[in-house]
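Quick illustration, no need to memorize.
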Amino acid sequence: MRTLIEGGTVVTASDTQRADVLVVDGKIEGIAARFEGTFDERIDARGRYVLPGGIDVHTHLDMPFGGTTSSDDFESGTIAAAHGGTTTLVDFAIQAKGTTLRQALDTWHAKAEGKAAIDYGFHMIATDLPPDRLAEMGDIVREGVTSFKLFMAYPGVLLLDDQSIFRAMLRAGELGALICMHAEHGLPIDVLVQRAIASGHTAPVHHALTRPEAAEATGTERAIALAEMAKVPVYIVHLSAQRALERVVEGRDRGLPAYAETCPQYLFCSEDDLRGKPGDEFEGAKFVCTPPLRPKHHHEHLWRGLRNYDLQVVSTDHCPFCMKEQKELGRGDFSKIPNGMPGVETRMYLLFEGVREKRISLNRFVEITATAPAKIFGLYPRKGTIAVGSDADLLVWDPERRHTLSKETLHMRVDYSPFEGREVVGFPTVVMQRGNVVVRDGKLAGKAGAGQFLRRSTFSL
């Protein structure tokens, strides 16, 4: 199969050029001013950008949480991702207490098999790591799952003590794996939650007020300190706040391999959204995620972090729950609201606003949505760039096409959109994975089950 994408402006993390892209049998065969010959398909990209497909390295599909399960499974979630220009995601397999890492991985393989419409990989969330189970981490890495997420929050369910975290970091260093940290000081948070509920403070906004910025900053500092002692890199997930970012900057300024991501909700939503609407404060439940949304002044600090390379990636932490029968579990008790927001489909749309508003460059947009996650998580150069030999995961992106975000038009399986009615500019008219068109002009052209599991290489930055 020979496909020519012609007349577009090819954009990578480092370069921008007018060029044609030749795709042969799922791989990028060449990039040149012009190609001659016969082609099975010609795609007109004049007046448009040709971008690497987006890579979202933080999603939670078909995930049990708080007595319910995230509303997108691997079929609906990957189809939604493709519509938004994301062609690869890395989801989290979760080890239940008392089970093995292998059992968790097998469970998540079963969830994804035959359903994913785009390529996918897994991180491993480790919740039970006594010293005699650390050896099993090697088996998981050999399966191509080369990153482990550890929690400092959610005691009794996900939290690991610092000693277990440190042992896991040492073992990850031996294996070339990367530790991802949910960095919040969880035990004091639980005390604040209990006190708030006992005092009758049960509305959604108290989810934020009981998870203060100091808890995230302290957790981030501890995570970086443990990694420094273990002499290993660390990746802070879903960073939301100025002080936590400052801890990352301090570590990087000392030469430590500390990396961090933020998410669109921390760039575009705020604590005000958690307060709901006049007469209906529970509307704020739509915006309950962890870490919580922060006051608006944090937005500019996070955008600056992206411009200055202090934040490396924007992922989504896509973990959708419907208001009806799911978020409503927490009506009258904010601590029972399932934590998470939908975002896998809207990430690229929202971040392109940052390009139009000159908050970030177009090349930086490509870097934080595709290239950097591919490099950090062992997918580069197969994914995340436009280069000869790379997978033909490509977007033809119309920078002027306007459309409105709405639960009626988006494809995520959730009964609301945090960005309902917001007009955005920029749209992927063609979404291609390994040379196959998955979405064309907003209509699905691919199918469930076409996505492949990606064995990722070990950490090498």
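The chain has two domains: 2-51+390-444, 53-376.
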